[in-house]
Write a structure and sequence with these properties.
- This protein has 204 residues and is an alpha/beta fold.
- The protein contains six helices and five strands; from the N terminus they run βαβαβααβαβα.
- The chain has a five-stranded parallel sheet, with helices on both faces.
- Helix 1 packs across helix 6 (176-197).
- The structure holds flavin mononucleotide.
């Protein structure tokens, strides 16, 4: 399944993580992937209201743009998620989306209607992030959230691209090495999805 969803989680349209994700999208397309781009700041997305009506069947009863994102993500083999670091976590836009996908976790674990994909069929996720400071632990909080979020989607954190010392809009553009790395990684993700689809799923 050579389809990838690219999610822009920054409020800045031309910020650092958006610049890097655009490179990854271009690389993946060059390698033949079909990539859908989603800009979270353009969507109508309520935060999770914790009403748990998803216990019935795993469907979220808040009807907004979440259903559109869910359909695209579940139809894809790979996800590229880009978020800046805000207070050692992902952005609020990104976190709202993560929480809405809890309906999928509920479906699998409480409504017992879902099933985990076999290891060969698990989706592959790329996380791209940037922060202004340079501390060793800058990405720890976000990475923990992203790993668990990806797992809810039957997805492994295939790779992460984490850039320190990027603050103002346009700074990522001044680092051709970062841009090249993001482009190359997008290509590699598309290629990894092609080779994965050649491996038959154990429980197919
Ligand atoms: C609300 C807010 C919180 C932030 N928190 C942090 C932080 O905890 N650590 C850090 O290094 N940078 C922090 N930053 C800086 C951003 O991570 C940095 O500017 C990043 O490059 C923005 O990426 P973007 O252009 O893709 O939005 C924060 C910025 C904002 C607006």
């Amino acid at each position: 399944m050579n389809r990838i969803v690219a999610i822009y989680g920054s409020p800045r349209r031309r910020g650092n993580t958006a610049t890097l994700l655009k490179q990854a999208v271009a690389g993946a397309r060059e390698a033949g992937a079909r990539v859908e781009e989603i800009v979270l700041r353009d969507l109508k997305l309520s935060p999770c209201l914790e009403i748990y009506s998803c216990k019935q069947d795993g469907e979220c009863r808040i009807h907004d743009d979440f259903q559109k994102v869910r359909t695209l993500v579940l139809a894809s083999g790979g996800l590229m998620l880009a978020s800046p670091i805000f207070y050692y976590a992902v952005s609020a836009h990104t976190k709202i989306l993560m929480d809405r996908f809890h309906s999928l976790w509920v479906k699998k674990h409480w409504a017992a209607q879902g099933r985990d994909l076999s290891p060969a069929a698990r989706r592959k996720g790329l996380f791209i992030s940037a922060g202004a400071t340079r501390g060793e632990r800058l990405f720890e909080g976000a990475l923990l959230s992203v790993r668990y979020f990806f797992d809810t989607l039957d997805m492994d954190l295939w790779r992460s691209l984490l850039y320190r010392g990027l603050e103002h809009e346009g700074e990522a553009q001044q680092h051709p090495d970062y841009l090249n790395e993001a482009h190359r990684t997008g290509r590699e993700l598309a290629q990894a999805l092609v080779s994965r689809s050649l491996v038959p799923a154990i429980d197919a």
